[in-house]
């Protein structure tokens, strides 16, 4: 789908969507629990729907009821292949879980997912009793049963490898240790996993370089859980507030454990005006200036931060972003290409970008099948005309994105 987004101001109020990352974790815990769980904060994002499909394939029952999801735990009866769509988290979380349950499972992978890194997790699983193979293009077969023991993973590839094992290891009969060979990047996402586990009664004891996970644990449902507002998605709307007219995003918890809440600190470093209360944030435009940003722990913030950099006075360096080359697109290359297409001066770094701020002149952006590149281009329309190819990819995380953008173009409050 191609859209023309004429240059025009963006401003108003946005209700945050439920955190995609937190929902995926809560749904998985609920499917492993001892009784039904009601999950408040339903989402029709493609990644959340992928998790629901795959949990059903493993034998759970997941039904939508308005803005809630009811999850009946996994039974002995599996229901065919697990279609992960393009969701890396779904695959990396459920691969160890299926192995811990002893379920022979075929995972179906789409888009760039078959090419995204899996090697360290694959090797760790095969070293502990699991047999993995690729019987056909876009398929991954998991067989055997995961055995407890000592697991060692690199910390600089994907935090999702750690999360997947943290979900699976409590299900095993014996104790395990999960250690990081190097400090884990995106540590906030592992913290989100540990928080979800605690809500379902699962213990993982911290070690200097990892966790000790007792075996024989049972997931115990708290009855009902609620997903927070999504700081990763909100970052784009907050960036619009720094570039155009004031934007308020509601439903964002000030004390959230989501790492991407640091977008507020980053906005202040650029010079934007930020006001926060218990569950809402307002950002107002102000003269922006370049700065240096390390996104090692918050790589999903790189696209909106890069756009701010392109509109700020001076030069901005974004580093710690090498892992972005293995997202839905080579996201570093896609960010650079999008900004150059709009008239920005961008230089590639080994692990990031150097962006000389100035005036965007407009142009045509290819989303490269990456929802966060499409969102970057959409917010850029606050400063220039944008023609966007592949706009439909926003459905991966926010199917209502274009409706919300239209509300901000008219300056009205957008309800979800």
Automatic annotation (TrEMBL):
Similarity comment: Belongs to the EPSP synthase family.
Name this protein carries in UniProt: 3-phosphoshikimate 1-carboxyvinyltransferase
EC nos: 2.5.1.19
UniProt KW keywords: Amino-acid biosynthesis, Aromatic amino acid biosynthesis, Cytoplasm, Transferase
Binding-site list for phosphoenolpyruvate: 20, 88, 116, 160, 331, 372, 396
Active site: 300 (proton acceptor)
Entry keyword annotation includes Cytoplasm: yes
Metabolic or biological pathway, per its Swiss-Prot or TrEMBL entry: Metabolic intermediate biosynthesis; chorismate biosynthesis; chorismate from D-erythrose 4-phosphate and phosphoenolpyruvate: step 6/7
Domain named Enolpyruvate transferase: residues: 8-405
């Amino acid at each position: 789908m191609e859209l023309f987004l004429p240059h025009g101001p963006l401003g108003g109020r946005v209700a945050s969507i439920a955190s995609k990352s937190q929902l995926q974790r809560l749904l998985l815990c609920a499917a492993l629990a001892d009784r039904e769980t009601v999950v408040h904060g339903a989402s029709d994002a493609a990644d959340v729907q992928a998790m629901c499909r795959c949990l059903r394939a493993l034998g759970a029952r997941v039904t939508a009821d308005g803005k809630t999801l009811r999850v009946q735990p996994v039974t002995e009866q599996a229901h065919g292949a697990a279609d992960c769509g393009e969701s890396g988290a779904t695959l990396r979380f459920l691969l160890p879980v299926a192995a811990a349950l002893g379920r022979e499972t075929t995972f179906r992978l789409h888009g760039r997912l078959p090419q995204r890194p899996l090697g360290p997790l694959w090797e760790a699983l095969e070293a502990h009793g699991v047999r993995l193979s690729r019987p056909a293009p876009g398929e991954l077969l998991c067989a055997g049963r995961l055995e407890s023991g000592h697991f060692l993973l690199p910390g600089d590839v994907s935090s999702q490898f750690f999360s997947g094992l943290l979900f699976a290891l409590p299900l095993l009969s014996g104790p395990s240790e999960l250690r990081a060979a190097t400090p884990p990047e995106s540590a906030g996402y592992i913290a989100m996993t540990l928080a979800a586990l605690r809500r379902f009664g699962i213990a993982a004891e911290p070690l200097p370089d990892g966790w000790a996970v007792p075996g024989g644990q049972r997931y115990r449902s708290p009855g009902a859980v609620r997903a927070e507002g999504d700081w990763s998605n909100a970052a784009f709307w907050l960036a619009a507030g720094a570039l155009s007219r004031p934007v308020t995003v509601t439903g964002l918890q000030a004390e959230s454990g989501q790492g991407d809440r640091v977008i507020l600190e980053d906005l202040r470093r650029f010079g934007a005006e930020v006001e926060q209360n218990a569950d809402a944030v307002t950002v107002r435009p102000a003269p922006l200036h370049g700065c240096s940003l390390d996104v090692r722990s918050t790589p999903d913030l790189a696209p909106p931060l890069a756009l701010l950099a392109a509109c700020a006075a001076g030069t901005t360096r974004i580093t710690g972003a090498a892992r972005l080359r293995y997202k839905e697109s080579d996201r570093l290359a896609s960010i650079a290409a999008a900004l150059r297409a709009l008239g920005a001066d961008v230089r590639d770094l080994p692990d990031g970008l150097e962006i000389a701020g100035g005036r965007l002149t407009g142009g045509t952006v290819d989303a490269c099948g990456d929802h966060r590149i499409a969102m970057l281009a959409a917010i850029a329309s606050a400063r220039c005309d944008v023609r966007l190819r592949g706009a439909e990819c926003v459905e991966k995380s926010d199917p209502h994105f274009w409706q919300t953008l239209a509300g901000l173009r008219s300056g009205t409050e957008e309800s979800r």
